[in-house]
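Hey, quick one: can you model this chain's 3D structure?
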Amino acid sequence: MISQFFVLSQRGDNIVFRDYRGEVPKGSSEIFFRKVKFWEDGELQEAPPVFNVDGVNYFHVKVVGLLFVATTRINISPSFVFELLQRIARVIKDYLGILNEDSLRKNFVLVYELLDEVIDFGYVQTTSTELLKSYIFNEPIVIDAARLSPLGPAAIFSQGTKRMPGIAVTKSVVATEPGGRRREEIFVDIIEKISITFSSSGYILTSEIDGTIQMKSYLTGNPEIRLALNEDLSIGRGQGPVSGYRSSSGGAVILDDCNFHESVRLDSFDTNRTLSLIPPDGEFPVMNYRMTQAFKPPFRINALIEEAGSLKAEVLLKLSAEFASSITANTIKVQMPLPKYTTRVSFELEPGATGQTTDFREANKKLEWSLKKINGGSEHTLRAKLTFSQESHGNISKESGPVSMTFTIPMYNVSQLQVKYLQIVKKFGTHEPYRWVRYVTQANSYVARI
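Sure thing. Here's the predicted structure for all 450 residues.
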């Protein structure tokens, strides 16, 4: 049972606020934001996703820089509330096309109409985009996609090609194109988040891929879709070799496990790896999967730290992109915790370096190295000179690291799971709908020990 729901900007501005039961003080959004901004509790540097203040439970998730918050006075399952907040964000995005502060402010009437249908007197009714269309009557005010932040989700696919539009998922499921007609198109995105831990000598200790096949359909009449995957796709452990890397040009794709959306029919899946479905409105996951079979990592990180005197040390970071030169990774960030007694850091980038920035976060003693983009097959290095406030009496390497990394690689996936074809059963007269199949790989937990 939810007492309140609200959305705050990063500055703490209250963009959306709905009080369903009147049980929680009206100033709860301000109480929440001050608690999150000035959180102090032991070693925690950030507020946890759920906490209690004066008998009120606050649950929050961050979506594209916005804080989605729910409050309640009763003991309720946190996982239920987090799932609800994520679904509310997804429903709002489906109807507005773009989810950001500007779109929320300009479409507040539509947003409040959605919230009143999703939750009634604190009880959840439905979070289905398709079912809500029967009760929603306001049209969205379209926001110009060109005003999106370059780091936004829609920008992932706009790197270097006009065939993969970045505005793919910035369209509302109810708004029409100029002239009153609707552009017939369907988008299928294979998104993989990889987790890797490297040992200090460069060996892979753990590796895992969490993947999802996302679909968003703008086809009229909800026609049947057939999605064919790799014919050599195997599901379940023990169906292939688990040592050594698979060749990027061949070899079976072996998934540990997977699950499918309720709309997917698996009649032909065992025989020819084809999924059949009638896609519901809005963006939804067709299939989620996990893979722990060894794979070639897209990046190698080498880190070396050495003493250079009683109060000095030197860090050398080397980043190698081990994917094809035709692929470009973007928004790369490398972080490395330094000894607590580090007072100053000076950086030295490689000659001719462009699109790279460095920083020393003195508050939490972290080195940060950001690269706008990296082409496959390239190497980049950073040298940092550390100054300490006291002489080290232990092993500096043990007091530093591990090195962590985040990145996005459009039109690339590690597992080699492929959409072989995307068939629309319904005929569309003289023209064929547009079909977009896109791939992206992101870092989930990419760590190298020192």
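One thing worth noting: The first strand starts at residue 4 and ends at 8.
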